[in-house]
Design goal:
Layout: H1 2-23, E1 46-57, H2 62-77, H3 83-107, E2 110-119, E3 124-129, E4 140-144, E5 147-150
Antiparallel strand pairs: 1-2, 1-4, 2-3, 4-5
Helix pairs in contact: 2-3
Length: 151
């Protein structure tokens, strides 16, 4: 019976030592010591991305309307003779202008990314860029020359 209590005592102390060893591991909540520190940027030009919105910026279509009008007018001028030719030229120019305007609007739009950044000083700033460079909401960023970069 005495041997049984000694065995329980040894097993209990072993479990206590095992648990104590597990609890003494590295503290992952604190900053690591050594290694490469993050780059030092001014606090004034850094922040966190709050939101990224995509908008489509379309051209005004003036170039397409001009080219379409000229081409339509030239084609209309090839039809008929006399006052019929004049009417066809005007109709071709107007029709070509409308078609050219719509074609340019449909094919020349570009995407613009509006990136809203909560700066470290608490202010909110927006930046328009032609690409996101894989930026996402929640990324820590720096602003340099009106452009947003991850760091």
């Amino acid at each position: 019976m005495k041997h049984h209590y000694i065995s329980l005592l040894v097993v209990g102390l072993s479990m206590l030592a095992l648990l104590n060893g597990c609890a003494g591991g590295p503290d992952y909540r604190s900053a690591p010591v050594g290694g490469n520190p993050p780059p030092a940027y001014s606090n004034a030009n850094t922040g966190v991305i709050e939101d990224i919105e995509v908008s489509h910026q379309q051209s005004n279509g003036v170039g397409g309307a001009v080219v379409g009008g000229v081409v339509g007018g030239l084609l209309g001028n090839q039809i008929g003779s006399g006052s019929g030719r004049t009417a066809a030229t005007v109709a071709g120019a107007v029709g070509g202008g409308v078609v050219g305007n719509q074609v340019q609007k449909n094919h020349s739009g570009r995407e613009v990314y509006n990136i809203r950044v909560r700066m470290n000083d608490g202010s909110m700033q927006s930046f328009a860029q032609d690409s996101t460079d894989n930026l996402r909401a929640g990324d820590r960023v720096r602003v340099d020359g009106g452009r947003v970069y991850r760091y």
